[in-house]
Amino acid sequence: MALGSDSGRGMWSNRWVFVLAAAGSAVGLGNIWKFPYIAGENGGGAFVLIYLVCVGLVGIPIMISEVMLGRTARSSPIHAMRKLTDLAGASRKWVFIGWMGVVAGFMILSYYAVIAGWALNYILLTAQGTFTEISADGAALTYNEFLASPLQLIFWHTLFMVLTIWIVGRGVSQGLEFAIRWFMPLLFILLLVLLGYSFTSAGFAQGLEFMFDTRFEAVSGETWLVAMGQAFFTLSLGMGAMMAYGSYVPENVSIGKTVMIIALLDTFVAVAAGMVIFPIVFANGLEAGQGPGLMFVTIPLAFGQLPMGEIFGTIFFVLVSFAAFTSAISLTEPALSYLVEEYNAKRKRVAISLGVMCWILGLGTVFSFNIWSTGYIIGQMTVFDFVDYVSQNIMLPLGGMLIAVFSVWVLPQTTVGEQLGIRGGFLGVLWKLLGGLVAPVCVLVIFVYTVMPLFTNAG
Ligand code: PHE
Fold first, then answer.
1. What kind of fold does domain 15-458 have according to CATH?
2. pLDDT at residue 194 above 50?
């Protein structure tokens, strides 16, 4: 990425490079793989609506806070929190935010690399014509057979991790900016092509109804928790990735406006992915709530029916893989930048050590789909479910809530005013109301109602 050397640690060359990098972090498996399957498992429409509310009322203010903290401190999240607590004369306990982010990033990357590995394998499968005119059952069978083989999963998981560590270890390079500049727009175009296809499919009306028809009977406290976790995950919030990227944002960039653009792009990709997938699901008599396999069954199925589907399908999975790389890189950034700054360590060495540890943890996810598929950690949760649940639904919202509270109630508001260009007035009230009250209270209420009973029941 274009980190110029005009200041000591570098800076994005302009606002758009930051938008690209942050959108690269935000748009990933969370949008194309996770959002549709979580919406499918949680009843569709009402979930989508709650998710949009969470993005607007909680996600956007927290992203603004995170980028602002990064830009104020201009260092890795852990160091940033140290500097900022000193600036505010507050307790060093707040640095916990930075540490929890490092752990959350580590946990997320451990399974992210496994699923991204599936996408890599699907590039090859699609290119070979495996899905040409395949039936719905055939597509499901291909997926199930792949998952049943730990060795195959480990191969692709390893490949993804090695490539990520290679890119990260080289420094966030020109190559990445090139990828983001070309592949993100291409991803948008291909999504539009696929939207066109699903528009003409027999299941379009049913798919649309599933996504936008709000049947609130299906909503529980758990729905809110999952929607909120998804909003944090998809916007890369609550673990310091945006803080790390924010630390390179030039002074003259308007944080508020830029964050809106990033959130809009991210939301568009998620909703478009759902609108592509559900019509195809219904047109083929598949199930909406089939879980993590949703994208890996319906998308190949759709391409299999299209003229030149092998070519488009291959490009699609290449793009998904790129989207996953640009997100994976940002997942390593908080830990990596901290270790490099703190110990003056070599980036490459730190990257390799982190990669190896993460790879080992990732084996838990690999086995969750085959030999450990009934090895539950708590309740009915496999290792994958557990790592995913704790990081996405607990650590990210908790981190995000603390970030918002810190920004509004602890940091001197003169600093905030300078950073965000707010001089009291309507924006000042809005900032306090959303960042200081609505966002933290929403997270807290959802926590108290859903997470607490989970632990009291389990214990
Ligand atoms: N936002 C990424 C996605 O949707 C995942 C991610 C989460 C990246 C947290 C960085 C930090 O795929």
1. Amino acid/polyamine transporter I (1.20.1740)
2. yes
